[in-house]
Write a structure and sequence with these properties.
Mean pLDDT: 95
Number of strands: 16
CATH architecture of the largest domain: 3-Layer(bba) Sandwich
CATH superfamily of the largest domain: FAD/NAD(P)-binding domain
Helix content: 25-40%
Distance between the termini: 33 Å
Low-confidence stretches: none
CATH topology of the largest domain: FAD/NAD(P)-binding domain
Largest sheet: 7 strands, mixed
Number of domains: 2
Length: 533
């Protein structure tokens, strides 16, 4: 049994920025940060484009960024949260720069601000095409300088601990549910350890691995959302899964799919059909720089119309030095599979990219479970609404990490540490006989979600998905209850939960809005609505 004042599950931008702020302010507090692989592997590390912030006050202002975010969110954003994130964002980015983050500058020494789909101005700060990697590097180095932060690698969190583990019957209507820490699988010792804390923060990232094609790393299995849902916490708007319009089409297949940043279109890249014709003018006056939901549906539709496996992104007219300087990793990746983007068009296909719904929190990261906070992609704060505006994700992680810090700072001294927690009980379980059961179930899950709950949905597809998911759920729960725990089994179990939440929420929304498009309900309600689960 391990004890600390604060337990942070997840070591990306939201989790680490929170931990750093609290550690600096309160060196007397002990902070444990858990990551299920190593400290550089997170959804944050894979972010290419950059972080959006109002930086050039001569050309840009808060209201423009707010309006762009609300427009992309298609009527489901919480306007008060949008205002908070947009207005507090620049200060959080300045702090990152003070901690050592390097963003690209132009020849005059000013920051080279990029532009992406849905943005009315250039406001994206970036480091080449690996901005997330640079932010992760900065946070890791800063955290390592603080003696009261302990980052533990190769620790997979199984479940958060509540009164349920003390023998109380906890339901979604039970008042006063509290979190006391988590049960965690130590991947090196292969033992399940109990981590207790006054306050727990979920910063576990997204859930893109529920789909066959995704730009998310293999660790993006929706662990935090699933744990919260099992603990009877409130989840919202899971039907809004964002598909990035342009992942690199690689006939050899790869997981994750390689992302062709939206910033490429911001620099002038043009979407074309396989016979070289522009098509985005048919779907939106902003053409290739329309918000992601519109562009992804447009590409999906063109692929279906022409029977194509991909469409093209034409960058051949962009000056070579400019492209290679800004996108060196995209250039090298394309070259590695035999494509010279300066001479040939890049084949692209939509891929699951971002979880816009998730754990429902207030503007300070408080969840429906006491002593439990959440921040980052695993949450639904109301910022993204029905579709996330490009490069608002890193911004949200920074702002909400700071706000969770403020809330925890106010309350932590009055919270007692609950120590009367039973150890994990594995009695009656045996070693699994065939790992093929897990790998095959995962393949089935990804096929179900990609075929029936993708970019375009119907009532019949959603019903079929739920029927198939129920069978997978029953089989997996039997394995979970009778065999010894493994990270692979837990990730499968979490992803089946995520698949159910996405599909059930999609079934409940009888309209088409943002990232959710159902051909049986193409109209849009004239009022805002949030899907609670």
């Amino acid at each position: 049994m391990k004890q600390s004042d604060v337990l942070v599950i997840g070591a990306g931008v939201a989790g680490l920025s929170f931990a750093i702020r609290l550690a600096e302010k309160r060196p007397d507090l002990s902070i444990t940060v858990l990551t299920k692989t190593h400290d550089s592997e997170s959804n944050t590390s894979y972010a290419q484009g950059g972080v959006a912030a109002v930086w050039n006050s001569r050309m840009d202002d808060y209201q423009k960024h707010i309006d762009d975010t609300l427009d992309a969110g298609d009527g489901i954003c919480d306007a008060s949260v949008v205002e908070i994130v947009v207005k507090e964002g620049p200060q959080r980015v300045k702090e990152m720069i003070e901690w050592g983050a390097r963003f690209d500058k132009d020849n005059t020494g000013d920051y080279d601000l990029g532009r992406e789909g849905g943005h009315s101005e250039n406001r994206i700060l970036h480091f080449k095409d690996i901005t997330g990697w640079e932010i992760q590097r900065t946070l890791n180095e800063r955290a390592n300088q603080l003696s009261n932060i302990e980052v533990l690698e190769q620790y997979f969190t199984i479940d958060i601990i509540t009164q349920h583990h003390l023998g109380r019957n906890v339901t979604r209507l039970t008042p006063g549910v509290e979190c006391y820490g988590a049960y965690v699988f130590n991947k090196q010792s292969r033992e399940i350890e109990t981590f207790l804390a006054k306050v727990t923060v979920l910063a576990t990232g997204g859930a893109g691995q529920v789909y066959k094609n995704t730009t998310n790393p293999v660790i993006a299995t929706g662990d935090g959302i699933s744990m919260l849902y099992r603990a009877k916490g409130r989840v919202a708007n899971m039907e809004f899964m964002q598909f990035h319009p342009t992942s690199l089409y690689n006939p050899a297949g790869e997981n994750p799919s390689f992302l062709i940043s939206e910033a490429v279109r911001g620099m002038g890249g043009i979407l074309k059909t396989t016979d070289g014709q522009e098509f985005m003018q048919k779907y939106d006056p902003r053409q290739s720089l329309a918000p992601r939901d519109i562009v992804a549906r447009a590409i999906d539709n063109e692929m279906k119309l022409h029977g194509d496996d991909f469409e093209f992104l034409d960058c051949t007219h962009i000056p070579e030095h400019q492209f290679i300087n800004h996108f060196p990793n995209i250039y090298e990746k394309c070259k590695s599979i035999g494509i010279d983007p300066m001479k040939e068009m890049i084949p692209v296909v939509p891929a699951c990219h971002y979880t816009c719904g998730g754990i429902m929190t207030d503007a300070f990261g408080r969840t429906s479970i006491s002593r439990l906070y959440a921040a980052g992609e695993c949450t639904y704060t109301g910022l993204h609404g029905a579709n996330r505006l490009a490069s608002n994700s890193l911004l949200e992680g920074l702002v909400l990490g700071e706000r969770v810090f403020q809330a925890v700072l106010e309350s932590i001294d009055s919270i007692p540490l609950q120590t009367s927690i039973p150890a994990w009980d594995a009695e009656g379980t045996t070693e699994p006989k065939e790992m093929v059961m897990l790998t095959q179930s995962l393949k089935e899950l990804k096929e179900i979600m990609s075929s029936y709950v993708g970019i375009v949905r119907t009532d019949a597809r959603l019903k079929r998905a739920l029927d198939r998911l129920h069978l997978l759920y029953r089989e997996t729960e039997l394995l979970y209850n009778t065999t010894i725990i493994s990270p692979q089994l837990c990730e499968l179990r979490n992803l089946i939960t995520i698949g159910y939440l996405i599909t059930k929420a999609a079934q409940m929304r009888k309209e088409s809005r943002g990232l959710h498009y159902n051909t049986d309900h193409p109209e849009k309600f004239p009022y805002q609505e949030v899907t609670f689960l």
